[in-house]
Amino acid sequence: MDKAMWDKLAAAGGIVAVVLIVVGILVVGQPPEISDDAASVADFFQDNRDQVLWGTFLQGLGVLAIIWFIAALGVAMRNAGEGRLAAAMGIAFAITFSVGAVAALLRAALAYSVADEAADPSVVLALYHSAAAMDTLSSLIGAGIYAAVAGAVIRTGLLHTWWGWLSGVAALWSVVSATAWGRDGFWSPDGAEFISFIVFLAWVLVTSILLTMKGRTSTSVSMA
After folding, report:
1. Closest Cα partner for 138 from 200, 185, 86, 187?
2. Backbone angles phi, psi at 183, to 5 degrees
3. Digit-coded pLDDT (tens) for 12-30
4. What is the domain range of residue 170?
5. Considering the domain boundaries, does residue 96 fall inside one?
6. Distance between CA 184 and CA 140 in Å, rounded?
């Protein structure tokens, strides 16, 4: 397998990541809402221990795939002359996913041992809310991923220009959704932040497809 094929596989890592993350979400099932009481949240983790742990595992595999995708995207940005934006994207990714990993591990910890029969439901609720707050506030740093890619695409034509502008819109939404601090309703982690997560998955999927197609086109041209 030559380098060009490895590059295409890395670029396609975003597609694999989205599939794994979505499957992980389906395995976990419907999580408690942020407005649910402490007993309901504790009951969820007691009743769905294995599902939460397996779902977290699958999402972790998805993050591994995203790492390869981000690496391929960063190389493409540097090759297009946007080394600074590639570095900014990588740093934003590292910080955002570090915060997200802590939030995921908190939920996994609840499923593993905290939410047992002797657990204090108020402690369980506090940890669950902490994970939700981390997810929400991480969107602020995550906007840097979209913004860096938007700048590189618009300036160099690395991918389709229209995708650069849509990435800019995603960056703005990511910043705004980081203020979704409500305990219920749309402007809460269950509403605006959930939409932000869906936007992220869609962005990774489309960017991965476009980057893979670009790599295939470049390979065809070089062979010709």
Report:
1. 200
2. -90, -15
3. 999 999 999 999 999 999 9
4. 3-211
5. yes
6. 20
